[in-house]
Amino acid sequence: MNQTEIQTPSPASMPQELSQVVVALLKGVLYQEESPALWHAMLNLQAAVRDYVAVIGLELILDEAEGYCFLRSRPADDEENGNAIPRLVARRQLSFPVSLLLALLRKKLAESDAGGGDTRLILSRDEVVELIRIFLPAGSNEARLIDQVDATLNKIADLGFIRRLRNEKQMIEVRRIIKAFIDAQWLADFDRRLNEYSQLIGQQKEDSDA
Predict the structure, then answer these.
(1) What does the domain layout of the chain look like in residue ranges?
(2) For residues 163 and 42, what is the distance between their CA atoms, to the nearest angstrom?
(3) What pLDDT shows up at residue 170?
(4) Rounded mean pLDDT of 57-84?
């Protein structure tokens, strides 16, 4: 009886392609639409990539439907015993403005998906300002607010969750990779903190009106 063997390309057989994929992933997120050739190579070498990065304590997170993949540190099972591999991908402590805007953008993307609209969520800076305005104290300086929003958007762009459109610097696209980092539990926890913050802002408004 004849059997057909399906072989996965090994690092030894395609070293250059494997190196190119791993280096690209170590630099950041790999998107299908931006790097179709590398994306195709990553899919073909997926098993080899996973084995390769596992040696340095990383794992490949792949979403073929959304068209992106990235590396993240593997859970350290023996961290309590002090035997964990040092993190190559450092954890980042996000500021409140960044966390707030990430949550608002994630919710906006969920609303867009639920409405069956375009798979791309594109917002103007003015729309982003309106999203965040209700969480700020009354009478906030408009020019300062816009500057703060721009600064926060720049930080979120550096993290890879949004990108500014070419030739339309006041427009941003919310990248779908945000779904991989902000799940339902994260949103629920942040919603609780937002409610506490909103109550504080409301109390401050009442005190200022008194």
Answers:
(1) 15-81, 96-209
(2) 23
(3) 85
(4) 76
**Torsional sign, CA 162, 73, 51, 21:** positive
The residue type found at 195 is N
Residue count of the chain: 210
Classify domain 15-81 at the CATH class level: mainly alpha
Please classify residue 92 by burial: count the beta carbons closer than 10 Å to its beta carbon, then call 0-12 exposed, 13-18 middle and 19+ buried. Answer: exposed
pLDDT of residue 15: 74
Asked if 15-81 and 96-209 have one fold, the answer is: yes
Q: Is the separation of the CB atoms in 18 and 49 below 8 Å?
A: yes
Question: Is the pLDDT at 116 greater than 80, yes or no?
Answer: no
Give percent of the chain with pLDDT exceeding 90.
Answer: 26
| Distance separating the N- and C-terminal Cα atoms of the chain | 89
- For the whole model, what pTM was predicted? 0.67
Architecture of domain 96-209: Orthogonal Bundle (1.10)
Pairing of strands 58-63, 30-31: unpaired
